[in-house]
TrEMBL record:
<dbReference type="InterPro" id="IPR037523">
    <property type="entry name" value="VOC_core"/>
</dbReference>
<feature type="domain" description="VOC">
    <location>
        <begin position="5"/>
        <end position="122"/>
    </location>
</feature>
<dbReference type="InterPro" id="IPR029068">
    <property type="entry name" value="Glyas_Bleomycin-R_OHBP_Dase"/>
</dbReference>
<dbReference type="InterPro" id="IPR004360">
    <property type="entry name" value="Glyas_Fos-R_dOase_dom"/>
</dbReference>
<dbReference type="InterPro" id="IPR052164">
    <property type="entry name" value="Anthracycline_SecMetBiosynth"/>
</dbReference>
<dbReference type="Pfam" id="PF00903">
    <property type="entry name" value="Glyoxalase"/>
</dbReference>
<protein>
    <submittedName>
        <fullName>VOC family protein</fullName>
    </submittedName>
</protein>
Amino acid sequence: MTLTGPSFLSLQVRDLDRAAAFYETHLGLRRLPVAPPHAVVFGTEPIPFAVREPVPGLDLDAISPRPGSGVALWFHADDAQALHDRLAAADVSILTEPFDGPFGRTFAFADPDGYAVTVHDKV
């Protein structure tokens, strides 16, 4: 038996409509036409990404310092600097300013639920 790697990624969010709109509007992700009623799935490659309602009993506000602490969530963009500039202009919280590193131009921001998301532009 061989584990081949991640095949799906989702974030549990406080407000599904707000989170989905954020990822569509600010990051340009597109919804897939089919998703469970408690989630919005985006057509990201190579791994599908979704936002979903929290599982019963999960209190996102009780997680400190932010949901997802300890997990590194990275997205590739064709122009990380341009995306950073667009997010900063929209008053999205920038956690790490852009820098050049082994993954190209890289920066991190906080989504509406406080998840840290890193963006890079090297393939």
